[in-house]
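Board notes (copied after class):
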Amino acid sequence: MLCHAKITAHDDSSSWAVLIHGLFGSADNLNLLAKTLSSNINVIQIDLPDHGKSPHTTEFNFNTYCDMIIDTLHHYQIKTAHFVGHSLGGKMTMHIALTYPEIVTSLVIADIAPVSYPHRHQTVLHALASVDLTTITNRNEVKHHLDNLLNDEGTSQFLLKSLYKNEHNHWAWRFNHSLLARDYDKLIQWPKLSKQYSGPTLFIKGQASDYIIAEYQPIILALFPHATSKIMNGTGHWLHAQKPVVFNRIVENFIAALIQ
């Protein structure tokens, strides 16, 4: 199976950047970054499996997800690329770099580390489970329901981006909510990989986020010995959405320095 992808390409001689979003998101989450990078290089934005317009699977599995991404790149004859991943997308790009290093020219990892995390999304999962899509008549009903449960309009708006009417004119989530909820314990883990990726690697941390902490530095350097880092002030986990101009400039400069 192939992932759904959005492509902005110049020519066969230009470098490629692969952009991968986080949990409950879609390729559109990184549209602004894609627009910034596409002025100089080819860009492919990928919907993770069980997200966006990509196929739904029967089980969350790091190897399956990464193989689907690699197969998608092969389909579009992309042999090497700069990878940028946020959150769960960052985990996937790190996994790809450690298992298929010959494909990865460089890595940019946005606010995630190669570690297992505790449960963080119980409230979101509960809110999604409590939405009865068979009875709603419009999008505002779902927004009102999510706002009441989450008390966070930003998260509500983010989730609503994946709400759509399917071919039967029924409301549905583009992400595979039932699978992601069932297999949540698997996706917050980090697979034990003993390999290293020695290419250029940049970790970007949101200042107010605790997804990357000082205790993770030895773990990061053990797997990515040439990793460097930047901290974005005034941002949390959603750093690319909170300060897109700053985030996009950091990524663009990092990649540009490697293709000059």
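Comment from the instructor: The beta strands are 5-8, 16-20, 42-46, 81-86, 104-110, 163-165, 171-173, 201-206, 227-232. Residues 134 and 173 are 12 Å apart (CA to CA).
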